[in-house]
Amino acid sequence: MKLHLQSTTKLYNGVDMPWLGLGVFKVEEGSELVEAVKTAIQHGYRSIDTAAIYSNENGVGKGIHEALAENNLRREDLFITSKVWNSDQGYEETLAAYEASLSKLGLDYLDLYLIHWPVAGKYKDTWRAMEKLYEEGRVKAIGVSNFHVHHLKDLLLEARIKPMVNQVEFHPYLTQNELYSYTREQGIQMEAWSPLMQGELLNQPVLQAIADNHGKSVAQVILRWDLQKGVVTIPKSTKTHRIMENASLFDFELTSSEMEQINALNQDRRVGPDPDHFDF
């Protein structure tokens, strides 16, 4: 079956999650944000990823509501993700943070709610709150972000419900092989943030050669690599041409040799913090 922009992967609980979404990290509140969300939805995106700490849930919500009205769509046609921030972790705090995110977004449920970072001594209580939200039907799926294998194993010692998603930094210079294998074994869907390494990879020679071979951009090659590895991806852009370019991934396929060449670029290099060493 040929993939297209609205193709989904089935999470282990049966929820359908789009393979491609729009990320809004570091996009400030305002008309640019609202228009980016509306443009993405208008051009066929169905997944939007935000977080409490991005301080832009109001604008994301405004963009969603305007796009639904203008494109004759229903709320259930979209897949909306947000995340609980570190200072809001803990059982009661997480329940309150969820309500705050819903209120800002103007929604009555989220499709996916994630623990943003594995805050030591707190993420298990946070997860209990996520389980409660999920069991009450307030959220369609729950997961984590920036969890290493050892964090996941520790969480699973006491969790009643296994995370459905782990959203992590993932790109050709950081292929996270151990984590990739573990999440696949566990049936946890891996999702890539910063798939283009915040633009650092756009002049990478091996990727450029592969892109030239397909008449595509380096960004499109990287995002296609994500999809062929079975990793959900959420590139960020506010520019219409980039939003459209990032979605044009379904009319070409990387060969197994090209996939191997990209896999071999790994340097275990991060642009974001290491989840074992963060102080926020």
Give the helices and strands, then pairings.
Blueprint: E1 8-10, E2 16-18, E3 22-23, H1 31-42, E4 47-49, H2 57-70, E5 79-84, H3 91-105, E6 110-115, H4 123-135, E7 139-145, H5 149-158, E8 165-169, H6 177-186, E9 189-193, H7 205-214, H8 218-228, E10 232-233, H9 240-247, H10 256-263
Parallel strand pairs: 3-4, 4-5, 5-6, 6-7, 7-8, 8-9, 9-10
Antiparallel strand pairs: 1-2
Helix pairs in contact: 1-2, 2-3, 3-4, 7-8
Description of the molecule:
This protein has helices at residues 31-42, 57-70, 91-105, 123-135, 149-158, 177-186, 205-214, 218-228, 240-247, 256-263, and strands at residues 8-10, 16-18, 22-23, 47-49, 79-84, 110-115, 139-145, 165-169, 189-193, 232-233. The protein is α/β, with parallel strands linked by helices. It has one domain (8-263): NADP-dependent oxidoreductase domain (TIM Barrel), CATH 3.20.20. The strands form two sheets. It has an eight-stranded parallel beta sheet with strand order 3-4-5-6-7-8-9-10. Strands 1-2 form a two-stranded antiparallel sheet. Strand 4, helix 2 (57-70) and strand 5 (79-84) form a beta-alpha-beta unit. It starts with 7 loop residues before the first strand and ends in a 17-residue tail after the last helix. Residues 31-266 form the NADP-dependent oxidoreductase domain.
